[in-house]
Specification:
9 helices
Length: 225
């Protein structure tokens, strides 16, 4: 009995330390590969607890191995947007301009009742009031309502406004997303011009650059200051 208690305590502490090293995101917002690793770690920890015939090291080594694999994958994803898309997939737009994308709903095997439930949870009851509903890679749904129908509505106050759009990422960790540049009908000359306006001469210094939902250019460098 005492042996079981000791083994359980050791494995419990190991799992807690592993989850802490993997980061807070593991608890609040699991990507598919992170969920798989989390389930595997729980199974690997449970077996040596239940069966004392299994050497404790046979549970510890696989858990540490999974931790290393997850850490390497996370670092690679920070450097490669293409790899991030392969491992995590890409967000899917389920509603656009107040219209359901039926093809995408079927592709994601997401039924209309579940979608309406998600909308109601966020306080929206009419599909026509939604500009975008995006199924994120974590399985959560992000909702962007029509600008004139947001709380303290500009429409009610007779204020003219333009529709917010999806932010477009242009640079991540020094790497330019040329596909997104084409998407907004711009080129490297335009991008460099906007960076120069922000006193940035080297793209490698840029941590992130994007066009926000109102079409304004935003950027931040890797430097702490």
């Amino acid at each position: 009995m005492f042996t079981v208690l000791i083994r359980t305590a050791i494995l419990y502490l190991l799992v807690i330390i592993t989850m802490r090293i993997m980061g807070k995101k593991e608890i609040g917002q699991l990507e598919p590969f992170e969920l798989a690793i989390t389930i595997m770690i729980s199974e690997l920890a449970a077996l040596p607890m239940q069966d004392t015939r299994i050497p404790l090291i046979h549970g510890i080594i696989p858990i540490i191995t999974l931790l290393l694999l997850q850490t390497v994958l996370s670092l690679l994803q920070l450097k490669s947007e293409k790899l991030r898309g392969i491992i995590n997939g890409k967000p899917s737009i389920l509603i656009k301009n107040g219209q359901l994308d039926i093809k995408e709903l079927r592709s994601q095997r997401f039924n209309i009742n579940d979608l309406m439930e998600e909308l109601r949870i966020d306080g929206y009851y009419n599909i026509a009031d939604i500009e975008y509903a995006i199924l994120e890679t974590s399985g959560k749904i992000s909702i962007i309502p029509k600008t004139e129908l947001t709380f303290a509505t500009k429409k009610d106050m007779n204020i003219k406004c333009t529709q917010d759009t999806l932010p477009v990422t242009l640079i991540i960790d020094g790497k330019v997303n040329h596909e997104n540049l084409k998407l907004i009908n711009q080129n490297m000359s335009w991008l460099n011009k906007n960076l120069n306006k922000n006193n940035i001469n080297d793209i490698n210094e840029v941590f992130i650059a994007l066009l926000d939902s109102q079409g304004k250019f935003y950027c931040q460098t890797n430097k702490k200051n």
